[in-house]
Amino acid sequence: MSQSQSTVHQTTPPHLNPKSRIVSIQVCRGLAALLVVLAHLHNLEVKYLTSNRLGMLQYGVSGVDMFFVISGIVISAVTAGQQPDLKNAAKFLYQRFARVFPIYWIYSALVLAAFLHNPLLVNAESGHRVHILASFFLLPTDMPMLLVQGWTLSYEVYFYSVFFLLLLFCPERFRLPAVLLWVAAALALYFSAHVHTPLFACLTSPLLLEFLVGCLLYQLYRRTRLHPYAGVALLSAAVLGFTFVVRWTTHAHGSDQQWIEYSPLFRSTFYGSVAALFVFGLMELERSRLVSFTGPLVAIGDWSYSMYLSHTIVLKLVFHACTVYAPALSIVPIALVSLLAVLVISYASFTFLERPLLRLLYKPSRRPAVLPHARGEQVPVSG
Questions:
Q1: How many Cβ atoms sit within 10 Å of the Cβ of residue 193?
Q2: Tally of CB atoms within 10 A around 371
Q3: What is the C-alpha to C-alpha distance for residues 75 and 87, in angstroms, rounded to an integer?
Q4: Per-domain residue ranges for the chain?
Q5: Series of mean pLDDT values for 10-residue runs along the chain (383 residues)
């Protein structure tokens, strides 16, 4: 990841200050994590209370798609200016894995302990089945993982591995075309081949389009300067796109968005497009200085990976406690208590677990990145 100051300036256009921090990326991380929490909150409402008062929260699954777009932006940024080199490639892969795996293993181990104590405590929706090996190494599988959100991290690891190969063999000027060819080849196989295995589904998934869009957005942000109010237009388009998705789903599918969730092609088209417009809109609003992000939204961005990993455990514990000890409570107070508990545990996990681990395992580069992280060089990129 190291390179000279002169190289940074050579790869950065005059209007993009290499020492600036794109705080909106961190804000989007926090919002994406919260969206996923809300979606799982709705799932538990249906499971424990058999009500559907929070039905709109099911669209929070789109937070995963926002994470994928953000990953494309950030990985393009941290590899900018690097030419093919084994040392750079190995360091990149180590740092990515150091960010993702250690704390993920800790939370997976907690769920494994619960599973070994009583298998009925884990994955009730899928017959209490678990693929332990795939869970710990994030291997694509048709069985549930210990952490249900682990499947998204399999895509992250896949994406990191592709960029590892690019850093080994591909000069920077050919890197984006190589990513385009990779995604095009994957989609060609998706439409033409008839192989039905979890690994093949991951390798050829249309969800790869969301990573590609993130790479394209990074290059657009890096090389162009849009109108100061472009961010407003982009956010407006994101809101209109999301409204269309909700209205169409209500009309054609009885308000159940699972038809999008389980169709990678439609998911990348609908949720991916909305996520890309939203993320890029916030980035442009910040760059034009129409909006300034501080305080809680940035802090939640810092906690986002801890929140993403811990929230399913926290939500299930809160719902179980509420239904056992306060069965008269409705979903609204349970939801408020759940969200508060998720925020508290996320902060504690980041402060006392995730950040110390990262300081131990990962030493950030001292050089300014082309698109640096906000407040959080040590905050993981995750799905």
A1: 10
A2: 22
A3: 17
A4: 5-361
A5: 34 39 92 98 93 94 98 95 93 95 97 92 78 96 93 97 96 96 97 93 97 97 92 97 94 88 94 98 94 89 97 96 92 97 98 96 56 38 36
